[in-house]
Every structure is written in C-alpha cells, then in structure tokens.
Amino acid sequence: MASPTTTPSSSLIFLVLLANAAPLAVAMLHPVDFLSLQAIRKSLRDTPGSNFFASWDFTSDPCGFPGVLCDSSSSSRVVSLSLGDPRASAPGLTGRLDPALGNLSSLAELAVVPGRIFGRIPQSLYRLRNLRFLAVGHNFLSGGIPADLGLLRNLRTLDLSYNRLTGPVPRAVGSLPSLSNLVLCHNQLSGPVPPFLSRTLTRIDLTHNELSGPVPPTYLPPSLQYLSLSWNRLSGPVDRLLNRLGRLNHLDLSMNQFTGPIPGRVFSYPITTLQLQRNAFSGLVRPARWVVIPTVDLSYNRLSGEIPPEFSTVRSLYLNSNRFTGQVPGSFVDRLLGSSIRVLYLQHNFLTGIEINPAAEIPATSSLCLQYNCMVPPVQSPCPSTAGTQKSRPTWQCRSVVGVAIVVRCRAERSRHPSPASDWTTLYSDSNPASPAKTLAKDAAFSGRPSSLAMKRAWRFSVPAHAELSCLRRSLRDPAAPRSQLFARARGFPREICGATAPSSAGMREIMGLFIDKFSRAENGAVLGEGVRARVLELRDELVQLGGRDEIVRALDEKADPLLLSVDGLAFVELLKQLDAWPHQALEVLIRSTRSLSFPLTPHCLCIAVLVSLRCGINGKAHRSICSFTNREVNFCVMRSPFLFSSRWKIGLFFWKRKLQERGIPMTSEEYVKGITVAGRIKDVDLALELFVEATGKRLKATSTYNALMGAYMYNGLAGKCQKLFQKLKGDADCSPSIVTYNILISVFGRLMLVDHMEAAFREVECLNLAPNVVTYNNLIAGYLTAWMWDDMERTFQTMKASPVKPNTSTYLLMLRGYAHSGNLEKMEETYELVKDHVNENDVALIRAMICAYCRSSIMDRVMKIEMLLGLIPENGYRPWLNVLLIKVYAQEDWLDKMENSINEAFEQKTSVNAAGVMRAIVGSYFRCNALDKLVSFVKRAECAGWRICRSLYHCKMLMYGSQQRLAEMESVLEEMESFNFDRTKKTFVIMYHAYISSVIIINNCLHEAIQLIILNEELPLFIHVLG
After folding, report:
1. Percent of the chain clearing pLDDT 90 (strictly above)
2. Handedness of CA 189, 191, 192, 197 (dihedral sign)
C-alpha cells in the first residue's frame, strides 16, 4: 500500500498546526528532515513481495517509521536511516537515491538493503559530516564513486559492494582518517589502488573489479586484518608489502598478475585461509616455521624447487600447476594416512616420487592427487576434473624442465652480452665432459650462434621452449624487423582454433557466393581448358577411390605437380571444388600444393583453400599449410576470421575485400558499416574504431557509420564512449542523428539501468519531431524491465498501443517477461496466449521466468502449468536451476514421488542445494507425509553431497522419532547435530520434552529425564511455561 501523496505546502501546514497545538510528550521531527524523508519516499518504492513503505504514513510521526531512528533532542533529528526490510528473504526496494539524503545533517548511519536501486550515488552525501556508517551494497548503482566522500572525516565503514560502479577509487576515499572497513567488491572499478592513510583501517575488500598496476608497500597500513584483492589485474611484486602486514587473519590475492617471490613470513601470520592462486609468483617457497594455516592455496603459479616439509601441517594444501620438483616429503604421507591432511593437490608439477605403500588406503575424509607428474602415481585416488586423465607426464617433458629454464635465462643473457658464442658456451658449460651441455656449447662455438636443433636434440626441449628459442634466433638475425600490429591483435588464436567445429558446407557455399564476383573480376578472366578439366576429373576419381593417406600422397607425388601448375593455379582451384564432398582428400591436395607450387595463389584460390581447411576441422596441418602461402595481412584474415562464430567469417572476408582495393575495386560506405557492426559483435571495439576512422578518411562517413560504431559500443556496454560519439554526431555539419541513433542510445542506457538518461533520450526524440518506431518503444520497455519498473513498463506499452506504432511479437515477448518477473499471472497468461506460437526451445530464459512466477504463486493448478512449460525446454541437457525449482514445487504440493525423483537427479548430477527455503520445503513434505525413513535417508545423502544442512532437518527427525516413541533414535540425533556444530536450542529441548511426556513410560523414568534435562540446561522457566 502506497503512502498518501503529500505536497510540500500541506506538509508545512501540518507542521505549523503541530507547533501551535498543546505541548506534546514527545519531540517533533525537524521540518527539514520531515521534507527530506518525503522526497526519499517518493524516489523509492517496494519491489514485488516487499511492504517496507506500507506504514510510512506522513500524517503520523516519521520517527516511528520502520528503519527511521531519531535522537531525543527538543528538535528531533534523524540519526539512523535503514531503507528496506533487513530480513534475508526480503526482496528490497527499487528506484533512485534522492539528493535529499544530504539534508539529514545529523545522520550517523545510512544503510540500504539489497534490492534494485539504480542511478548514481548522490553527490550531496558529502554534507553528512556526522556520518559514520554508509552501506548501499547489493544494488544496481552506476557511475563513479564521488570524490567528495573524502570530506566525511568521521566515516568508519564504507560498503558499496555488488553494484555497477565504474572509474577509479578516489584518492580522497583512501585519505579518510577514521576509516575502518572498506568494501568495494564486485563492481567495475578500474585504475590503481590508492594509498590508504587511516591507521585504524582493518578491512579492505576490492574483489572482482578491474583494478590494475602495482601495489606499493607503503599504500596499505600495518593495521590491516582482512585483505582481499582477488579477481583484478594487479601486478608487480608484493613481498615487501606482505612483510609489513603482520596482523592479517585473511589474505586473498588470487586471480591477479602478481610476480616475484612469496615471503616466508606470510606463512606464520594468524591467517585461516591463504589464497595466492592463479598469479605469476615464482622462485622457491621457504616458510619460516611449521605452517599452521588451515587452508593454503598456491596453485597455478610458477613456483619451483622442492616442496617444503613445513607445509605438512596444513589441513588443505593446493600446490598443483606449478613447477615443483623432487620427492614429496615423508611427513606428508604420515599425516595424510592419519587423516590430518584433508586435501593434498600436487598434480601438474614435475615431482619424481612419493614414499607411500601402494597398498595403503587413503582415508575417506582425505583427498590426494598426484596426476601428471614425472612419476606413475603409486596410489589411485579421485582427482578433480581439471587434473585431466593422464596419469604421468611424457618423458620428454620431464627431461625438458631444465631446458625451459635455460631458454628463459638465455633470453635475458642474450640481451645483455654482445658475443653469441662465448655467452652460450658459458651458459651451457658443464663439469661432465660427456654431458649434452658440452656438445651444445661446441655446436654454438662452431656456428657463431646457438644451434636450436642441437639444443632440442641434446636437452629434448618441449615445443614451447623450442618456439621461444626460435624466436630468439630470428630476433638476433634481424633485430630491426617490425612486428605486425595484425599479429599483435591475433594473440591467442591457436587455442580458439583447436576447439572449433567446422561449419556446414551450405554455409561455406553461401560465403563463397558473397565474394565470387569480386574475385572473378580480379583474376584477369583466365579460363580452364577442357583438356585440363578432364585431367582434373581423372585425378579426382583416382583420389576418391584411394583409401589410405599414404596412397593419396603417392598419387599426388606422381600426377599432381605438372597438372596443378597449369593455367596460373586454376586447375588447383578446380580440383578443390571437385573434392568438396571428400574433405580429407582435399586437405592432402592443399598440403601437397603448398609444398611444391611456385605460383602465387590468387584470392579465389586462397578462399577455396580456407574453406577446405575449415571442412577438415582446422588441425595443425591446415594451419601450417595456409600460413605457408599467405602474406601477413591475409594470414591475419585466415587466423582471425571464422573459427568460432559466423561473425568471424564475415570480419575475415571483410579484410579480403579491403585488400582488393589495391586492385582498383573500392570499398563502399555500406561495406564499412557492415565491417564496423561485425567488429562490435566479436567484441573488437578497437577494430571497429579503426574502420570508422578509415571510412572517415576516405570521406565515406555517414549517419549509418556513426550508428554502426555506436552499436558496437552498445554491444560491449561502453555507455560513456557511446554518449561521446553521439555528441560528436550532433556537432557534425554533414550528418545528423536519426531515429536509429536514438534507438541505440536508449538501448545502451536501458541495459545499464540508467533510466533517467534513457527517458531524457526519448524526450529529445519527441522534441526533434522524430517518429518513434517499434524498436524505440521496445528498447524503452526493455529498459524498464531491466530496472524492474513495472508501472513504467506498462505505461509505455499502453502509450505504444495508442500510438500509430503497434506492438509486434518482440514487444509482447518483452511484456511477457516483465509480467513473469513481476508476478502478474493474469496478464502473463493473457499475453502468453497471444505469442505462444513464438515461444520455443530458444527462449529458455523467458520460460524460466514464467516457471519461477508459477513457483512463487499459490494457484491451484500451478504444477500442471509448470509441467506444460517444461515441454518447451529441450531435453538435451541438465539444468540445475530447473531441477531445484521442481524439488521445491513438488515438496510444497506434497508430491513425494516426483520430489524424490528430482532429488535423486540432483544427487546424480552433483548439484549442491544451498537455499534454506528449498531444504525447509523438503523437510516439511516428509513431515506432512509421515515419511520418517525417507527423511533419514535424505539427510544422510544431503550431508555427503554438501547440501545446506539446517537445524530444522534434525528437529524434524527428532519430532518424527518422538511421535513414534523411538526415543533412543531421537536422542542419537543430538550427536548428529554436534557433528555439524549445531547447538541445542530451546526448540530442541521442547521437542524432547513433548516426546518424553507422550511416552507410555513416563511414570518410570522419562519424566525424571525430561526434568533433569531442562534443569541442567537452565531452561526451568521454559519448562514451567510448557507445563502451564
């Protein structure tokens, strides 16, 4: 229920009447605070399921409102404001934070519960000079952190976590003198970590941001007890920094780019969990003493040397994916077999042994993983899926451990010393005359430079090490050779290619047809003679009949060379075309031709070669074959274009079209628009901007090119750049914004929940007399839907229906999603009837929203409607969210068999349920169906599977045991509770008391036991109350 609308004038009249009335027993709220609370109320509203503002009736004293606390002075002021229901299950509020918050001058605490509040943090908060606590986490706030917050000199806690804040962390925030807790995690903050000057600062949480750069040792105070910087892009060494932070009890630097050694002192800090995984830490690990930290994770780094025995006192130790060598210390084995070590992950290192009896059994409570080391694991135990299936490393990798180190060192030495032979002889000399190092040094001295072949033969280098050495040799030969920017952009392409799947032949023919005309115009009209064509067909028939690869290669060696060299390579193209249905034979032709042909491949030939390679899955042979006959730009095109998505096909072929300009076939403005659009789709914004600048330089700039670049920014969530480009377009004398321009702008703001910006853009459309189209209204509706502003969404929809622009299918699908999220079942079902023919297996998110709406409802036939929607979801994959929803619905409806089927499926798929509401629903269903044995079985399985175990599970078991007079089993539940650290509560004792009272043996000893139990646990008042 919304509060009555009260105008400022009526509010002042009300306050004047109160002032002239009889003296009151309580103080009257200050008029400024009264009007400020009114403004705050108007800018916020309850989300569906919340009734926080239901009692905010301004005809009464606001100091009695929920969340409002006033002082006791004569002119009462608001000192604490908590907006929203603080209960964990409450849905929260939506809307914007009004600048009137800055008028509550006595405010000391401001908290906003998790919800869907959007917009920026009000700049006016700097006026709250008494503010000590500010928490507005778990919402959708955007923009930057106001630097004026640095004026709040009394601020002790600042929590802006789980929002969409961008920009740097202001240095002014770091200079707050009284700051104790800073929580800015899960945002999009960028830039460096500022220096923090507060000497009372104990907690910093900057997890899940985009911060970068080093963290100097003096930037963090020694008073810190909690430091979490994980999931950023921070870099540089931290050994000096960590040596200063001796009071830490929590340290998480994981998922960064930190380098250098890990100081041994950090392992003696009073930390409960040390997380340094997934960085670039290197060197030896040397703890100062036995490590007593329960959990240590140093995985995915570059640590080397032997594993220190001081780590054997750690309960959960993760050292996997490093470069540790040598034997595993025996102390680890003793503690592992004694169940003192719970987790010992040593996979993906270069360890050579572990002294453990192969017949030894690893305790069920412990986990050991030794896969992919330089040994065969003597015992088999379950490993995580990331460990892979290979038990040991290949022998050549174990021999190349030293070689990899040599290559790295040789690169550093090479840059410092001018004499090749002497340096390499010094680096690889060995005291053993027959060692491979002596032979290697001899080869180097003979040739005047290091011999990579000799090194690979002597040391058996791994492929990456040999590649590094080859790069070194090339740089020595031609140090001035420029590095292509195209290759710099193509970094990481081999990994993408190897996991790709080949497109269908229909898709290849379609792409080929798009460019065949331009290729034919560029090839001087060469014609393939009938005699040559007949020889091509003859060779095709012979290749098709041959089965083995050796036979195909032999036939090509005998007949291919003189044929394929004819008519400037057109015979080669014709043969590949004829082998379209036999891709493996075509691939052999491609490989053979690249080894022997001397003619330059035309774009037509090149396109056919790329298509054939793609048909064969883009393996290593195809890469080498294509790369051998392409120049750098076309090589970039081949590598970057079609391996993952159809968009990459298009951008690759776009580069070919741009190359054709050299042959007199110019690009058009429309082609640049398509290139910019596709570059945005593959998230290459720099490329999109490059194409825009290129089109501008050729005077092909138009409103459509502006729109294409704005669309690229929109697709990548760059609202600021999109706005700047829009302002540039408005100032361009040759172009002007169109309705498409404003559609893009509205979509950008809607996606980022910048509703005020979105509405301003739409008002500008009306002022310019531009005709809104269906996309305009759809983008507005989508923006309101994202912000959960259901009333505005419905108002826009009704406005659209009354305008000349009528809703289309996309409009109704958006409204269907909005009705589902808001729980408006009546309109949801009405809209679904209109578009149900357009809802299919591709709309899983929409179907999920509808299923969730039915799950939250209490209508009679909701299960039937849910199962009807389930028929629209493809059955080709397991969906954890759907299974958990079905468990809860079936439990609430007491459909025990279907509930257990869904529970069994969750156990089989290793789905972990952590929602307390789901667990309570399951317990309630077992209780109502009096299925005690099934409940006991479920609790055991849930404990083993890691589901959320709540006290109500055990209370339900006790209650059901007591109702069946199984008192011994009821008492055994107390031990189960203790094993999971659940304390006994009053409810526990009441359940036991009622069980004893209802038992037939109460006269003998059960009453005595009940009374003793109550008295020993100091619950005598409760006992007397129950008796009463």
Report:
1. 31
2. negative
Q: pTM here?
A: 0.49
Tokens of 978: 């203790």
574-588 per-position pLDDT tens digit? 777 777 667 667 766
The mean-pLDDT minimum among 377-386, 461-470, 476-485, 560-569 falls in 476-485
Q: Please state, in angstroms and rounded to a whole number, the distance separating the CA atoms of residues 783 and 780.
A: 5
Contacts 24+ apart (CB under 8 A), 578-586: 578/536, 578/537, 578/540, 579/540, 579/543, 579/544, 579/612, 580/505, 580/615, 582/543, 582/544, 583/612, 583/615, 583/616, 584/616, 585/543, 585/544, 585/546, 585/552, 586/612, 586/615, 586/616
| Whole-angstrom Cα Rg for the chain | 36
Beta pairing partners, 367: 343
Rounded distance, CA 831 to CA 871, Å? 19
* Token pair for 937: 């079985």
Q: SS3 for 454?
A: helix
Do residues 113 and 86 make contact, with C-beta atoms less than 8 angstroms apart? yes
- Asked whether residue 421 carries a pLDDT value surpassing 60, the answer given is no
Q: Are 406 and 383 a contacting pair, CB within 8 Å?
A: no
In 3-state terms, what secondary structure has residue 386? Answer: helix
Asked if residue 779 lies in contact with residue 750, where contact means CB atoms within 8 angstroms, the answer is yes
Predicted confidence (pLDDT) at residue 8 exceeds the cutoff of 50: no
Helices (H) and strands (E) in the chain, counts: 43, 29
**Is pLDDT larger for residue 492 or for residue 306?**
306
Provide the pLDDT for residue 196: 94
Report the alpha-carbon distance of residue 890 to residue 899 in Å, rounded.
5
Q: What is the pLDDT of residue 858?
A: 78
Q: How far apart are CA 318 and CA 386, in angstroms?
A: 13
Q: What is the 3-state secondary structure (H, E, C) of 515-569?
A: HHHHHHHCCCCCCCCHHHHHHHHHHHHHHHHCCCHHHHHHHHHHHHHHHHCCHHH
Token look-up 């200079």 returns: 175
420-441 average pLDDT score: 36
